[in-house]
Structure formats: structure tokens, C-alpha cells
Amino acid sequence: MTLSESTAAPVGEVVLEAVGLTKHFPVRRRLSDLFSGTKAAVHAVDDVHLTLRRGRVTALVGESGSGKSTVARLLAQLYPRTAGDILLHGTSTKVHGGRRFRTYVKRVQLIFQDPFGSLNPVHTVRYHLTRALKIHGNAGKTSADLEAALANLLTRVSLTPPERYIDKFPHELSGGQRQRVAIARALGADPEALLADEPVSMLDVSIRLGILNLLKDLKDRLNLAILYITHDIASARYFADETMVMYAGRMVEGGDSETVTQNPAHPYTRLLIESAPDPDRIEGIADPTVLDRGNGEPPSLIRPPAGCRFNPRCPHAMPRCKVDLPPRLEIGDRDGHWAACWLYDAETVAKEGIGSAADVDSAIPTPPALTLTEEAR
Amino acid sequence: MTRVLTRPLLEIKNLDVDYGLGDEAVKAVRDVSLTIHRGEVVGLAGESGSGKSTLAYGVTRLLPPPGVVSNGSVVYHPPTGDPYDVLNLSHHELRKYRWAETSIVFQGAMNSLNPVHKVSVQLMDAIKAHEPTSSKASRLARAKELLRLVGIAEDRLEAYPHQLSGGMRQRVMIGMALALEPQLVIMDEPTTALDVVMQRQILGQLVELRERLGFSVLFITHDLSLLVEFSDRIAIMYGGRIVEEAPSAAIYRDPKHPYSEGLLRSFPALRGARRELTGIPGSPPDLRGMPTGCSFHPRCPKAFEPCSTDLPILGKPDDHVGEPRTVACWLHPVTAG
């Protein structure tokens, strides 16, 4: 049995790092493109920086089509990247399959969204888990070792007693149990990092928390680094230590979860939080559409807007937003809280004024965090 | 949101829906009574497999075989004329009733548009079927008006569904549901496949339309946090039965049934203190082998003696005073009658 209950590595050690990660998917070209020399591509992910640390959960929040799943697949090396780098313990890795891919996936495992599709319906739980253990060399030498390892895996994901579940087929299990088997399979490799791509969004609400609590518990016990991809920002607040927000292929805001959700800086994050269902807002429905000048839809990623990608929808857009790409700017309220938004560049704001490009009335309040930044300076 | 609701629109009484016949039938909906009043938004919440969609299909007589309504009645009160039982309508009457009186927006409505027809054709089709004498120009004008109603530019009328985004397709479906100005719109998980920003825009629009046109909505979803915000009353289903029904504020502040309480505790909050949440232990029941007594008792943290043997009746709890609400739980016993 090689599965380690607690590894010697300290909490917070960097496991996986993405530096300027970029992925463009080519689009079918027309004859006219051939002459004009333009290469059309979907800019699915552009310049993503993120760090996964041991014993920490990093959430990546965004709408569908924002590129968050592409990030997970790039990190799992299922897609080759267009540009940028993936560092595993500080060394650049690029694997295309074969043995080197296997050694990579032994350390970085991916959990998929749909437990109904990620388990083979004609095989039992035993088959799925045995395969994971054998491929990654965790099956031990004898069949008794294997049995012990299987039982251990199932116990770890709270499918107890193991004998009751080991010979079941996927259709005999409920959605939550299937997702637990998928997690157990990922743990069979004894990984250091777990990439969870919307692990609970296909499950019933009453089951979701069970899975999140399980992942939280595994993170603490096995000292895992977890990337939690979700569209539900409230669950990111609940589960993740750090939250990153993605919009149209770019990171727009990041920081510790509590700060990002309680004091959102980027106009898009604010729109996202205002739009989330909130039972406390029982008296009347707040109208978050004032935060959105668009029709609620992200832009085309084949020809993304110049400058900040949120500018066509942003109520605070300034002329500069349509030209220059905003860099990561410190907000200043809490360490490590940043937003890619010109509102946090005091010079730009002084020169151009908030909302000067947007034909909106002055009823839109100045972002609260902004005044805070200026005081801090 | 509180208003005096007196005139009923649709009364569902003791409805049972089975899949299959005889002893092997799976009882998906059992003894459900629910009244929808005029201009009201009623939320129906529950896990998958709790029978909420089956109930909606049973009420509209859209159940695919082997589903059968084995008992009960669905009384519809038209704006003028006498009430009638939808379950007794003839095929011809049913055709007239559907869409004109009650329309439905399906789960995954994004895929319920026909991909080979333009939006205009699909919108006009429903009008033509019900008003065969109307002119094409008037139908076109109506289709334009419907698109405007749901916030889509008129020029999208000539678009095919694949040229529209998910949110726009969903809006077209809502527009189509309103084509004949029905009294009741049933929405079966209308926004589950959409992003939060789009979801809120569409729901905001729906609330606005409801206020303008005055139709009632039966809103089916598993997302209770959404319902608390959007509906006037909420009914919670578990294992084919309604276990609690109350005004939304009352359910949110003071859930009586342990299952409602569990559901409400399953949502991480965006504001307020970060607390440890547990969800509901166990898995939803299998309809083929329903537990005896209260079907929630194997998962219930508060289960006690009578729960495993006796079925609690849904009614106004004896220990409750004030707004009308009902609950089926032995913790809040109901004196029959």
C-alpha cells in the first residue's frame, strides 16, 4: 500500500503553476482567409496565471464559455497549449502521451463534471478502481494487497462498507455515489493535485455539500492541491481558500475567497455576485441589469473586443478600456487581491473619469473599493 | 408580494400518477393537492426523482406512456364560464385548452425549438393552430410583438435556432408560451441550463411580464434559493408527495419539515457568516421501494417513533397560528379535519 496518509511536503508548497497559459482553437478557414493571411481562432484561454499549492483549494469561477474547463484540460495536459508554460514543482512540463503522460497524470488527476458519463457502464466499480491502481503502480504485489487498497479507496470516499459497493455497476449507484467512485478512481493514482471540473453541478442540491465536504476532508488529510472549477460563486466562497474569476478567456480578478466575494472589485465579479440567487433578498428583486449594459452575453471569442473584454457590457467603461488591456492591478484592501481593471489605476481614472465612455446616467454608484484604494495610496 | 389570493385558477386534488399498471406500477406522484390562484407564482421544489416534473406533465395531460393519472382531478377555472376537469376533456377540447389556457416551457427548452424552421415560423405556428382564420400579416405582427415582449430585436424573427444563443432561445420559448395569452404558464426548470447572469435577466423579465399580463406561474426547480426570491408560495415535494407548502418567506424563515430545513441548509450563502454546512445525508429514495411511514425518515435527523410506521397527513399543524401553511410531519401533528 503506497497511498500516503500525510506526505512530508509542507502545506502551501507549490505543486502546479500556470504561467501565461494560452490556448487558441483554430477555426475552419475560408478561401478568403487564405488570401488575407488572417488565421481565425477561438481565443479560449489567454494569459492565465495560477498557482496550486498543497493543502489549498483554488477556485476558478466563470460562466460557460469563459474558458475555465479549457484551463483544467490544459493543466491535465489533455490539450497541447498554444503559448505559456505549465510548471510541475518548478519544472516546465510538456507531455504528449505515452510514458511521460502517465507519470504526469500520476501526479495530477482530473475529475469530470458528469459522473454518468465518466464511468464505463459495462464495468463494475472494482474494475474502474483496479485499473487506476494498477496503471499507477499502487496495486501492491499480491491480490490481498489489491483488495486492501480497493477497500481503502472506497472508505476514503465514505462508500462504506466497501463490500457493498465494490461489485456494483454504475447504474446501480446514485449520482452522488458515482461521483464518489470517480473521486476514488482519481485518488487511486495517489496524486498531488486534483483538478475538479464542476464536480457537483450535475448532482442534486442535497448531495452537493456532501461531495464538497468530502473533497475538503481529502484535501486536509492527503494534503492535496485542488483546483475547483465552478460557475457557482457561493460554493467557491464556501469551499475554496482562493478564488479567481474568469471572463471570456481571461482572468479578471483574484484573491482570497472571502475578499473576492465580499468586496468584489471588477465590475464583472460584481455583476456575477448580484445575479446569484440570494434568498435574503426576499423583498423584491434587485435589478442587476444596471450593472450590465449588454444583453447578458459574453463576446465572440473569435474576434474578442480590444482592450478589456468586458468593456462592451461594463457600466463604468472609459475610453482607455476599449484600447488597452488592463494589467493586474492591486486593490490594496487585502494582500493578494487584484483585478484586471483600469478603475484601479488612479491615473487613468483621474484623466478619463468613470463611465465617460458609457452613456449611462450618474445613478450608478462609484465602486466602493475604488475610494478605498485611493485612500490607501 | 403578499396579496389576497382568493380566486383559484387551477385546483389539483388528490392526484396520483403511476408509471406502469397493476401491482408493478411505480407510484411517482401520490395524493398531491395543490391550488394555484390567479396571478400567483407557485414554486415547486424537490430533488430529481421527487415527482415534480411528473406532476406537471400529469396536470397538462402530457404524460408519455407508461405514465397514467390513476386518481384525482385537475379543475380549471376559466376567466368566464364554469370550471371543468382537465382530465375529462375530449381530445378536441384538450387541443383547444392547451396553449390557450395553459402553456408549458420545458426543461432544456433550449433544445425544444425545431432546428430546421425559422423562429418566425415556429412562433406563428402555435397561433395558426388556434386561430385558423387569422391572416398571415396579423400573425407576423403578433410574433414580432412577442419577441419584443421578451426583449429580442425583431430582426431575429428570420433567424434559425442555431443562430441564437442559449439565453435567446430560452426567451423565444417563453415568448412562444405567452403567444395565446394563457392564464397559467408551467415552467419546468426553465433556467437550469443557463448562466447566473442570464438566469436573473430572464427571471426578472418573467416577473415583469407577469405583472403586466397577469398570468399565473407554476415554477418547477430544484434550486430552492431561487424560488424563495421569485415565488409567492412554495410547495416542497419528496418521494412523490408534497411535504410542506407555505408562503416563501415563511418557508425560508421557519421551515417546519426537516427536509425543507435540510434543503435550505444545502446552499452555501454569499453573505453573512461562513458556516459549516452538512446537506442532507443519504440518497433520494427509490420509487420502487419506498420506505414505509414518512418516506423521508431514513434520512431524517429528527426521526422518532411513529415516523417509520405511520404516514403523516398534510395539513395545517395544530401548533401553528397565522398565515395558512401545511406540513406533513409527525413533529407537527395535524388533527384530521
Automatic annotation (TrEMBL), chain A:
Pfam family membership, one: ABC_tran
Domain called ABC transporter: residue spans: 29-273
InterPro entries in alphabetical order: AAA+_ATPase, ABC_transp_ATP-bind, ABC_transporter-like_ATP-bd, ABC_transporter-like_CS, Oligopep_ABC_C, P-loop_NTPase
Keywords tagged on the record: ATP-binding, Nucleotide-binding, Transport
One term of GO molecular function: ATP hydrolysis activity
Record protein name field: Dipeptide/oligopeptide/nickel ABC transporter ATP-binding protein
One GO BP annotation of this record: transmembrane transport
The organism's place on the tree of life at top rank: Bacteria
Cited PROSITE patterns: ABC_TRANSPORTER_1, ABC_TRANSPORTER_2
Organism (species): Dactylosporangium siamense
From TrEMBL, chain B:
Residue stretches making up the ABC transporter domain: 12-264
GO biological process, one term: peptide transport
Stored InterPro entries: AAA+_ATPase, ABC_transporter-like_ATP-bd, ABC_transporter-like_CS, Oligopep_ABC_C, P-loop_NTPase
Keywords: ATP-binding, Nucleotide-binding, Transport
Membership in a protein family: Belongs to the ABC transporter superfamily.
Protein's recorded name: Dipeptide/oligopeptide/nickel ABC transporter ATP-binding protein
Pfam families: ABC_tran (PF00005), oligo_HPY (PF08352)
Single GO MF descriptor: ATP binding
